[in-house]
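Subject: Sanity check before I submit

Could someone independently write out the structure tokens for this chain? I want to compare against mine line by line before I put it in a report. The sequence has 180 residues.
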Amino acid sequence: MRMGWQEGFVRGLRRYSLCRSDPGKALERQHGIPLRERAGLDGLEAKIDTSWFPPNNAAMTKPETVRRIKAYSAEIGYVYQYQFQDVHPSERAGAAGNEYIYYVSADRKTMFPVRIFVRRDALDNWTKKTGRLLTGTEEYAVAKMRLFQALDEVEDFAARRPDLVVDESNLPALLERLDL
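---
Independent answer below. Compare away.
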């Protein structure tokens, strides 16, 4: 016996509405085995917006950040490659600030970390003098200018790996390079 299109349409609507109102019942009717029994959930009550099944990607890892490698031609003749790695609040010798970490390479084979400590008290004093705060982007630019200054001045930077600090003695010159 063939079914007319209207009857098939009505059956499809019933099946759709049954699935929308209670997906568990629709699957029980389709497969003949109670869904709660198949999932091993006998005796448990389902709550709104909860799934009876565990998520399929519960332990998904954070995607790795793609970092751009840039080149800098120092005044002493070397061409360095560098990339920004991280910034985090830090403290050195009792002074609070932010530590910017760059990875630098002099030979394009090995990279080494360079830490630049930007002292909070130097930024606060500059704010008092000028009446405006440095933004996070401007602070990042100050740290980068300090890296460039060291690459320009320090012979054999890869061997020495100096400890770089932005403080009140060099902050005005770095800000001048940025036209701030």
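---
OP: Matches mine. For the report I'm noting this point. The chain has two domains: 5-38, 70-177.
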